[in-house]
Amino acid sequence: MAELLRGSEVVAALSRDLAPAVSALEARGVTPTLAIVRVGEREDAVSYERSATRRAREVGVRPRSMHLPSEVTTEGLMDAVTGLNRDDSVHGVLVLHPLPSHVDEHAVRNALAPEKDVDGITDLSLASVFTGGTTGFPPCTAAACLEMLDHYRITCEGRRAVVIGRSLVVGRPLAMMLLGRHATVDIAHSRTRDLPALVREADIVVACVGRARMIGGSCLSEGQVVMDVGINVAADGTLVGDVDFAAAQAKAAALTPVPGGVGTVTTSVLVKHVVAAAGKAEDACGR
Fold first, then answer.
1. At what angle do helices 140-151 and 7-27 cross, to 10 degrees?
2. Backbone region of residue 258 per phi and psi (left: phi > 0; alpha: psi in -120 to 50; beta: other values)
3. Is the domain of 77 the same as that of 149?
């Protein structure tokens, strides 16, 4: 029976670690501040904003919301982001996605100053993940996977990892981050030939392809660490991951549940990035 890697334990640990950093900044007259930019009223965006706001307040980070109508133009949204870049009281900016189809998402992403890009969406931030640089921050969900591995003392060095999914939000940046931890990494996806054979050879399996229960028992081997990043709605309305939970629980050594796993940690990583950004900004001011 697999050990369940619960996100709540990681969230509690992150909150404890952040408290001294926030207190130190407040002693210097700085309140770490996160601006959340939401376009329209998509239910998923509203839900994530609510979650991020709650998590920020729990650790002393000040949330600020900016709501724009769904018909906002690319230029209008870029102007809003540029204004936040110039606001020294704002340390991190989260632009909620997806944006309306008429908005040039690439232009909006890259209007954001990398030093305030706390969710790793700009080209410069992503390039830094791939080159091992320090510009910006990595995408929060990818970073949340590593936070969970660290918390549960699961080492990557010398182990073989398979990341199933190639998005710039999770799959590709996470593969580079695992490589940076000295894992040997394969990137697979929905069109990978003989996917089960590839996945069975891995020590660490990360599923982030966005298909409900795509990774079944035939893909898994005894003793693996299985991280399920997917959040999908099943036919009966329940939330399920990209992994068949029952099959994985019977074989894996460790397994993240859905819900209650990686997704739970993501907003805490976001807040961690805001606190780090506030510290960097304060140090740059030399105060």
1. 110
2. beta
3. no
